[in-house]
Specification:
Elements lengths: L3 E4 L4 E4 L7 E6 L10 H19 L3 E6 L14 H8 L4 H18 L15 H13 L3 E4 L2 E4 L36 E6 L15 E3 L2 H12 L3 E7 L3 H16 L4 E7 L2 E4 L5 E3 L10 H4 L5 H9 L7 E2 L2 H25 L12 H16 L4 H19 L7 H18 L11 H22 L3 H13 L3 E5 L2 E5 L1
Parallel strand pairs: 3-4, 3-9, 9-10, 11-13
Antiparallel strand pairs: 1-2, 5-6, 6-7, 7-8, 11-12, 14-15
Length: 484
């Protein structure tokens, strides 16, 4: 089956046909770096991580661009979000930005999220944003007022086509502070005049100022992907006004379609005091930072939780849902661990009672799910079903040969590891790994000797100390297996 994508622009699922065969240009709205990443960010960027991984696994060359907003993210009050946080922390704005940018990448790396190919910063692309604003003025879509530049939403009949919100549905003040200098309350800022106390400021044809939030993505997407590109991604909560403003200003400035496919990720929800799911948000104070979550759960468990729901759907975070994800991941990981543990001593020649066709079916089921709008929950379900059968095979009386074990491990490594990012690859066979394995095996032998001597205190101590160091033991009928 050809890859199908649900396009939010048009509200329908359609076959994905890139502009250039074999190549995908993809832009995803990135973070405003003014605080630590929370689990909601983890959901969004894990989802796009898996999307990019599957596109590449499917043979596409993907140019993945994800911006860093370090200036110009305006609050409803018209105040820059970066400046507000810098004042709260008594910090220089760029000092704040540098700190939280480093912490952002640290958190994304900890989650196993592959970095974008290009991560442009808004502050490094001021000339491009000024140029686009001037182009919109020259074409009659924008106007200057007292050193600020606004997009005239009444000049663009298609404004609202992504969110299906029309001008008459909007109310004054829903975007930013209403100013007398604006022609219409719904007009949005392309460039803002810098007040005397405003630190972040650049020269422009309209005087010193700074860019609005929406224009950065339009300018940087065009610079790195061209006026028209394949996929634009982001969170569903930014569909209006951010994504809507991106589309209208880009298409008016460039006389070309902006993004051909729009993919928006559903929000991460958390129960409120009454148990009603509410979007996890910094402004509501109901968030859990990624780094705090990672002290309780492995990154693979958090990824499993995220992938348990379709990327476009909301999912509710709770201790119960995380325990469910933990159990699902452990079943999968333990099967991989058992397979890899058997490989060293498995005989050659047996195909495991005809198990190879079952692997082919599991691979086909996984691919069909991912080609159906990146349906990770169904793909994950295919792996879980396979895992039940793998466990049955390994616990049966059948002789499972090295060839079939190698193929099972290869399937998990590719699909659960390289695509979903929830299974680690086999440990590299280097000198340090061999030394570590030798020491662990020696301790296992000492533990077994202590158990035979009924010295259970010593046996338990060895097991507990290994667990403290991150080494888990499992006693099976074939002996004691271990994993890190």
């Amino acid at each position: 089956m050809a890859l199908q994508i649900y396009n939010v622009l048009g509200r329908q699922k359609a076959e994905f046909t890139p502009m250039e065969p074999g190549y995908v240009g993809m832009y995803v709205c990135g973070p405003t770096v003014q605080d630590y990443a929370h689990l909601g960010h983890g959901k969004t960027y894990t989802s796009f991580d898996v999307i990019v991984r599957w596109l590449r696994k499917s043979g596409y060359q993907v140019l993945y661009v994800q911006n860093i907003t370090d200036v110009g993210h305006l609050l409803d009050s018209g105040e820059d979000r970066i400046l507000k946080k810098a004042r709260q922390l008594q910090s220089k704005p760029m000092q704040l930005v540098e700190f939280y940018t480093r912490e952002w990448y640290r958190d994304m790396d900890s989650m196993g999220i592959i970095r974008p190919d290009i991560s442009p910063r808004a502050s490094a692309h001021i000339p491009e944003q000024i140029k686009m604003a001037q182009t919109l003025i020259d074409k009659g879509f924008a106007y200057e007022a007292n050193g600020s530049v606004y997009f005239d939403v009444t000049s663009a009949p298609d404004y609202g086509k992504l969110s299906n919100r029309r001008i008459e549905m909007q109310e004054a003040g829903t975007r930013e502070a209403v100013r007398d200098e604006k022609r219409h309350a719904e007009d949005f800022a392309l460039w803002k005049r810098a007040e005397p106390e405003h630190i972040l400021r650049w020269d422009s044809p309209w005087g010193e100022g700074f860019p609005g939030w929406h224009i950065e993505c339009s300018a940087m997407a065009k610079k790195y992907l061209g006026p028209t590109f394949d996929i634009h991604g982001g969170g569903v909560d930014n569909i209006f006004p951010h994504n809507e403003s991106e589309i209208v200003q880009s298409e008016c400035a460039n006389d070309a379609e902006f993004a051909r496919y729009w993919m928006l990720v559903g929000s991460l929800m958390v129960p409120d005091q009454d148990g009603i799911p509410t979007k996890m948000s910094k402004s509501l104070g109901n968030f859990v930072t990624l780094r705090d979550a990672l002290t309780k759960y492995r990154p693979e468990v958090i990824r499993t939780f995220v992938l348990s729901a379709h990327y476009s759907s909301p999912v509710t975070y709770s201790e119960d849902s995380m325990r469910g994800a933990q159990g699902g991941w452990e079943r999968l990981n333990n099967a991989v661990w058992l397979v890899r543990g058997r490989l060293a001593t498995a005989p050659a020649g047996s195909d495991g009672n005809g198990f190879l066709p079952r692997l082919a079916q599991a691979r086909a089921d996984f691919a069909a799910a991912m080609d159906d709008d990146f349906n990770a929950p169904v793909a994950l379900s295919a792996l879980q079903e396979l895992t039940r059968e793998v466990n049955t095979l390994l616990n049966s009386d059948a002789t499972v040969g090295r060839e079939v074990l190698t193929d099972i491990d290869a399937l998990y490594t590719e699909l659960a590891g390289e695509v979903l990012g929830i299974i680690a690859p086999p440990q590299a066979a280097n000198a340090n790994a061999e030394r570590e394995a030798g020491l662990i095996k020696l301790l296992i032998e000492m533990r077994n000797n202590a158990r035979k001597a009924k010295d259970f205190a010593a046996s338990d101590r060895i097991r507990d100390e290994l667990a403290r160091l991150g080494v888990t033991l499992e006693d099976t009928r074939d002996g004691t297996l271990w994993k890190v």
